[in-house]
């Protein structure tokens, strides 16, 4: 992210006044003398500022006249892919041109001309190259710096990858009309919460198309109603990734990560503490192994797939601990000129409990439609989770279906700052009592990219 700081310049003027402290008849009292000297100093400052202003105005006028009288601009493209070439410059003036230099070297032009075209041969260095053009006429002079960028394959690669370090920060506020996810015929509770998410990463380039990433995630939320304090979550994750960008599958990545989640302990118990906050009790610890790939088929069209194998450990519950394997695939294409995303997930979970194993299917459809200066997003999610083995104490296998419809608006205030507003309705139905509900949430986010 590149920020443009605003800088203020202040000019300080100091005036020294020497005062004769000897008293004689008719002398001022000390306070009167100070007041008189202060008035004198103020008058001197005012006079000096006026004189400076009168001296500066003609110079500004001459400078403005020269800038308006002389026009210098490049006829060549700013970005080039060849090291050797010719820079084409046009100079237009209202009075005859007397002198032209490029990087201090005099240039030939027709005598008394007021319109000149120059062709400057160059041999560029990779990256930014600057040409200083100076023009003098009968009425004034002007300078201009022309920039030419030589885009080598190495520079394009580095530009695509970006800086080695990146930090994404997401600040959010969320309102919910059914925080406890109760059935429609029960009393619902509204809640308001704030959250913060940090996602730092650092890239080590091993070869031209191979890098190692160190990534982290830190997320925390806070409920502003003390009644729901126990629902606050603290999540941490660290991972190391190896990415190969020239594989047969496109951008191919192997990842090894670990994460820990803690929940706010209210009232405080003797449960094991979270590793980062003593106010939270440890909830889960997972080790995650990931293989993923992403390939660009054509401009605007990509497909990706990902396999995650997770070893899950739930604090205090061996039955809910175990392993899960997830296969995810996605396809993005400009369908009828509108960015459209299709996604699907298959998940197989095997826990230690006798009747805890489940299989799940998830699908996603998202459409992003630009309405400058914002982007409108509409997303529909569907998921179904079913027990593999029926619990004898229940009437058949447990099956749960979840549907969610989201409407979002994203406004990129700057390249490093994005505002987002999302309205989401989630509906869940299940043949298990207490698992059917409707939930509406409104979320406002600010995304900062460094």
Outline the structure in words.
With 450 residues, the protein is mainly beta. The chain has two domains: 27-151, Immunoglobulins (Immunoglobulin-like); 162-449, Beta Barrel (Porin). Helices cover 11% and strands 58% of the residues. The chain is built from two helices and 22 strands. It has helices spanning 30-69, 153-161, and strands spanning 70-74, 79-80, 84-93, 97-102, 105-106, 115-123, 127-137, 141-150, 165-176, 191-207, 210-223, 233-247, 250-264, 280-298, 301-314, 322-335, 338-351, 358-371, 374-387, 399-414, 417-430, 437-449. It has a 14-stranded antiparallel barrel. It has a five-stranded mixed sheet with strand order 2-8-7-4-5. A hairpin with a 3-residue loop joins strand 7 (127-137) and strand 8 (141-150). The longest helix has 40 residues, at 30-69. The protein is elongated, with a radius of gyration of 34 Å. The relative contact order is 0.08. Residues 259-282 are annotated as: Disordered. Keywords: Membrane, Transmembrane, Transmembrane helix. The chain crosses the membrane at residues 41-61.
Main beta sheet, described?
A: 14 strands, antiparallel, barrel
Helix content: 10-25%
CATH classification class of the largest domain:
Mainly Beta
Radius of gyration, CA atoms, in whole angstroms: 34 Å
The number of helical segments is 2
Structure summary, number of beta strands = 22
């Amino acid at each position: 992210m590149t920020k443009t700081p605003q800088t203020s310049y202040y000019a300080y003027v100091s005036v020294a006044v020497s005062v004769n402290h000897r008293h004689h008849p008719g002398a001022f009292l000390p306070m009167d003398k100070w007041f008189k000297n202060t008035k004198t100093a103020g008058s001197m400052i005012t006079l000096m500022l006026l004189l400076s202003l009168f001296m500066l105005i003609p110079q500004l006028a001459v400078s403005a006249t020269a800038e308006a009288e002389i026009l210098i601009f490049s006829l060549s493209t700013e970005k080039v892919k060849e090291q050797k070439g010719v820079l084409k410059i046009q100079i237009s003036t209202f009075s005859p041109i007397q002198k032209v230099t490029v990087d201090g070297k005099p240039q030939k032009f027709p005598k008394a001309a007021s319109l000149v075209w120059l062709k400057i041969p160059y041999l560029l260095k990779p990256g930014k190259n600057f040409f200083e053009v100076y023009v003098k006429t009968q009425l004034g002079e002007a300078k201009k710096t022309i920039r030419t960028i030589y885009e080598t394959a190495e520079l394009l690669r580095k530009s695509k990858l970006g800086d080695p370090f990146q930090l994404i920060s997401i600040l959010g506020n969320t309102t919910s009309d059914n925080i406890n996810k109760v059935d429609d015929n029960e009393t619902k509770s509204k809640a308001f919460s704030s959250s913060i998410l940090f996602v730092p990463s650092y890239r080590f380039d091993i070869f031209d198309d191979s890098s190692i990433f160190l990534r982290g995630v830190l997320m925390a939320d806070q409920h502003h109603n003390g009644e729901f304090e126990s629902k606050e979550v603290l999540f941490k994750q660290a991972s190391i990734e190896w990415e190969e960008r020239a594989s047969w599958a496109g951008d191919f990545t192997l990842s090894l990560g670990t994460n820990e989640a803690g929940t706010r302990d209210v009232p405080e118990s003797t449960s094991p503490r979270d590793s980062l906050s003593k106010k939270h009790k440890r909830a889960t610890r997972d080790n995650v192994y990931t293989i993923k790939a992403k390939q660009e088929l054509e401009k605007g069209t990509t497909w990706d797939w990902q396999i995650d194998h997770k070893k899950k450990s739930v604090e205090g519950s061996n039955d809910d601990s175990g392993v899960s394997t997830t296969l995810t695939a996605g396809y993005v294409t400009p369908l009828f000129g509108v960015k459209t995303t299709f996604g699907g997930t298959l998940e197989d979970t095997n826990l230690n409990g006798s009747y805890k194993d489940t299989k799940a299917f998830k699908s996603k459809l998202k459409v992003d439609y630009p309405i400058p200066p914002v982007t409108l997003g509409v997303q529909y999610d569907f998921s179904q989770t079913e027990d593999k083995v029926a619990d004898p104490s229940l009437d058949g296998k447990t099956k749960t279906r979840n549907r969610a419809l989201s409407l979002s608006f994203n406004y990129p205030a700057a390249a490093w700052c994005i505002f987002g507003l999302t309205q989401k309705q989630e509906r869940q139905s299940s043949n298990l009592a207490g698992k059917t509900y409707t939930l509406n949430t409104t979320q406002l986010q600010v995304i900062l990219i460094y």
